[in-house]
């Protein structure tokens, strides 16, 4: 059996540089590149290299590829990730506000009232999930009771934590799960605010929560895909997105799917700002990339060539 441990051992900056050179990458300023690799981490920067490779089998850069191009792609992903993150946070805050308002108005504002299992779905398949989520929310009250200023204030002064305070310390993933166990009439009321149906909103929240975590932990964004897939294809049809084996090639569980979701969940002005910021970063990257086309990079992100036309829909 071949021992591949040698490829996993620590490599110093000179060795990292040599690996890139051996793969055909052009490095004009060795010392500057070392500083970047030290600061940014070779592993993460190299996560973008296959965009500039001759093929999946040939582990060599396309002739003429420079370190500046590779690093530009790394910075593009970081900037886009930050843009996505702040806009997903807008939706997260909106959903927390809407859900807390709906439940507090209907069931009460003390945890003993709004966390009563009778307030949630009676679906026998979700009984265990209902109790699990309620317990997670109660745990957050215990954990944050003395650590979070707002929860501590309410516990110390009133003896309870209202839901509109509790949601601030709940993860988006838990908010997504919470929506999934609400009574149908409560789910419908919230879905109607976004002019969509319950199943579609459940999918939206699941995908957004997944991408939020990718952004928050600064993981590679551009090629990330979720297991959950969109089930609403109206925008896909209007953009005439290509299909492969009956499934849309773009905008199903990728970065463009997030754009489609935010189109439906942000305000018009917020979405305009969001697209304008992305467009700016795409234009900046286009001016720095010469070895491959900008569309090939965007396609990898899940963007169709006419992605900007979503603004006209």
Topology (SSEs and partners):
Layout: H1 13-22, H2 30-40, H3 42-45, H4 67-107, H5 111-114, H6 127-144, H7 149-158, H8 163-166, H9 172-180, H10 184-193, H11 198-216, H12 234-238, E1 243-244, E2 247-248, H13 255-265, H14 268-286, H15 294-301
Antiparallel strand pairs: 1-2
Helix pairs in contact: 1-2, 4-11, 4-14, 9-11
Q: What features would you describe in this structure?
A:
By secondary structure, the protein is mostly helical. The mean pLDDT is 94. The chain has helices spanning 13-22, 30-40, 42-45, 67-107, 111-114, 127-144, 149-158, 163-166, 172-180, 184-193, 198-216, 234-238, 255-265, 268-286, 294-301, and strands spanning 243-244, 247-248. The chain has 15 helices and two strands.
SS summary, helix count: 15
Order of helices and strands: HHHHHHHHHHHHEEHHH
Question: What's the total count of β strands?
Answer: 2
Amount of beta strand: under 5%
Question: Reading side by side through the largest sheet, how are the strands ordered?
Answer: 1-2
Biggest sheet character: 2 strands, antiparallel
Spans where pLDDT lies below 50 across 5 or more residues: none
Shape: globular
Secondary-structure-derived class? mainly alpha
Give the C-alpha Rg.
23 Å
Give the integer mean of the pLDDT values.
Answer: 94
Helix content: 55-70%
Separation of the first and last Cα atoms: 57 Å
